[in-house]
Amino acid sequence: MKTYSISEVAKELNLTAYTLRYYDKEGLMPFVERTPSGKRIFTESDIGFLKVIQCLKLTGMPIKDIKNFIAWCSDGDSTLQQRYDMFVDRKATVVAQMEELKKTLEVIEHKTFYI
Amino acid sequence: MKTYSISEVAKELNLTAYTLRYYDKEGLMPFVERTPSGKRIFTESDIGFLKVIQCLKLTGMPIKDIKNFIAWCSDGDSTLQQRYDMFVDRKATVVAQMEELKKTLEVIEHKTFYI
DNA sequence: TTAATCCTTATAGTTAACTCTAGGTCAAGT
DNA sequence: ACTTGACCTAGAGTTAACTATAAGGATTAA
Fold it and tell me: Which residues span the membrane (chains A, B) (predicted)?
């Protein structure tokens, strides 16, 4: 199975190795294995998971909340509903942002505000 | 014309007077008038403008960038295109976030990732 | 006239999310 | 064997955006 180093993953996800180590320290990556000498080794599935984390971050979710989500994942099927609800909640947040933005666009398009 | 005090506006917009003064210091509210004694007096249109600022913040726009936008507004019609472009850009950002979120929702709905 | 609410400046504290440095380990190439 | 480069940790430093306090003063509603 192909694995990746921290700097390869950082490049792929467009962030730094510092940031990945910080995420690890914050409990966002309990799934990442190590070599006998202690180096992190990332699998394809780890990278997929990190992409989900990035998506959650994009929606404005704080790291502590993402950490909770990761912890739920470790708890298995019993937390499936919670996890699903959380995603639905996130979606609602972004949809609400979209609505606000649309309203604002309408305002500026109709030139109804100036200083 | 009806006007509002800083604390009334803070309550209406669901933030604190501290925050409003901070925004003022950062150049986000050059339009707000004062009484002869120096108190800020907000009009309905000021509040409308502050709501636009809140909307921009919701999309993740930093205060410095919002300040630039406000400065453009002061520059009048010559910056109309820039301002419109900025809003389109913001909209695109949020739409992209939506797309990411939809993808992620699909992933979790199909239960294709677990730790 | 007293209490509340506002103002200022200056300064300090807080939180989140990085971002970096120092000092050390380890594995591969020459 | 040795040097180079990528990795490690702990912990310090940074930035943004508040959030609050203090000290001192003005205004306004009851």
Answer: none
